[in-house]
Specification:
Length: 133
């Protein structure tokens, strides 16, 4: 199993975060806080009208104060529960939402690249992650 001490885990999470932040449009909340991929994921999952257990879990953690921290916790939750590919796929279903959140260079806006990314993430479902949540 992959644990918190694994170098591969840190590399994987850094790459996932880079991918989710790449060409992300700058958006601000009502109070001026910069939105991040966490906000994109929450909106995408909310549009599917499914309450995601990972979102519920992360929002219940009082120690997490920033969107980036919440996003990282969500990625870890999804890895442990083998839900990363499915969760991201749900967020990528709506082309209008993708254009609202990402500029044209984002790989999520390319159907071919999006399929490649999701295919790789579905392969991670075979890996056991034992991470502290």
């Amino acid at each position: 199993p992959v644990t918190d001490g694994s170098r591969e885990l840190h590399s994987l999470c850094a790459q996932l975060e880079f991918l989710l932040q790449f060409d992300l449009k700058e958006k601000r909340s009502f109070f001026g806080q910069r939105k991040d991929y966490w906000d994109f994921l929450c909106q995408g999952l909310a549009q599917c009208r499914q309450e995601h257990e990972g979102v519920h879990f992360v929002t219940s953690l009082d120690k997490l104060k920033t969107p980036v921290g919440r996003g990282r916790a969500f990625l870890r939750y999804c890895l442990v529960h083998r839900q990363l590919a499915e969760s991201l796929q749900l967020c990528l279903l709506d082309p209008e939402s993708l254009c609202e959140w990402y500029y044209a260079r984002s790989p999520f806006l390319s159907p071919k690249r999006r399929a490649e990314i999701l295919g790789s993430l579905y392969e991670l479902d075979c890996v056991t992650f034992q991470l502290a949540l």
